[in-house]
């Protein structure tokens, strides 16, 4: 062991120590990860299977088509909406890309989006489902157990960051459609929202039922089980969704198959956590991040982001959260970052590993359906998800975005007071404008093409709005409004000349 660097050196362990830690104790194979997977994660996967068998996917697809299919670049917006909702329920980004992408990706290619962009839209939307309340791919329930924060608080705190992420994706989709002059699908070829809701709208009731149960503090496992039963009964209200005996058996079979990869990953993560605890590697990693951060919160956040993305590579959202919460989140406690904020930060970057090359599994799945280049699809997914890489930094520096008032609050607090509504409104407004401006800058288009210099200036204004300071907000707002008004004027001039 003498050749090992000091940071990687540990005392030797015999077979008995390792066997006892990983098999006989509750920190290895029988850790929180595998315990959670068999007590309620499986039930939520099963719940998603029952919803799918009852036609929930069809409901989201048809409703999204009815609402956005005729808009500019409509099919891509349909993909974002339907994949986001389904991704939140099933909790598996790759499976969601394969399931909904088979329908949405050909639609996007048909109206003129490139193969890589079509696959990237589906991947970024599916990954974002893991951060979308109320279910968040079941990760919210693991987070509640890990942090001790109530589920309702976690779901509420995740609303604005998730909306900002999806706003960034939809804005880029819209601006790309404008730049390429892509049209939507004719209304005559689309379903009508009223008819869709009449036929399948009642299948939204199981989700409402689940949220009500959780809000009343019904144990998570019981809530999931009750909701599965309610889903079967509710499906009988309409012939289009009615589940027969074969459908129910099929849902059980689908749920069992889909849970295998998650449970296997949870078991492996349990082994990793067991070794980390045995060797105190988690403490060493936290110490290393803090040391390299040199007292800078921003640098520590960057290092924690990189660590979370590496740890989350190739993992479903729940195992990714468990391992990042164990190994990366503790570093942020040294800067008095509230425990919920720290865990949400590492969760974001743990799941974004699925769209970050070189191991961008969700993006590669999208490329497999679209026929595009996998690596180009991965980089395009990263570009579409740009807002998601910035939002976590925003809520660390300004927890008001997560509806958390940190005034006189301990870093380990489990109960959070909400900020005043005018504070939340201010944060939401500046953040929304900042994300829209950043999306326009990235795509180089608003009402017409943005020159390079205008893209740079708009991006600067967007980042000023993102920084949580009153003066930077004022400067950023002025810069962004000026640039966008100038772009509108240029568009009118081009229209007049043509």
Automatic annotation (TrEMBL):
Cited Pfam families: DctM (PF06808)
Recorded GO MF terms: transmembrane transporter activity
GO cellular component: plasma membrane
Transmembrane segments annotated in the record for this chain: 29-52, 154-175, 260-283, 289-311, 318-341, 347-369, 381-400, 420-440, 452-468
Highest taxon above the source species: Bacteria
Keyword entries, A-Z: Cell inner membrane, Cell membrane, Membrane, Transmembrane, Transmembrane helix, Transport
Localization terms from the record: Cell inner membrane
Membrane disposition: Multi-pass membrane protein
Domain TRAP C4-dicarboxylate transport system permease DctM subunit, first and last residues per copy: 32-406
InterPro entries xrefs: DctM (IPR010656), TRAP_DctM-Dct_fused (IPR011853)
PANTHER family reported in the protein's UniProt record: BLL3936 PROTEIN
Function: Part of the tripartite ATP-independent periplasmic (TRAP) transport system.
NCBIfam families xrefs: TRAP_fused
Protein name in the entry: Neu5Ac permease
Lineage: Bacteria, Pseudomonadati, Pseudomonadota, Gammaproteobacteria, Moraxellales
Protein's gene: siaT
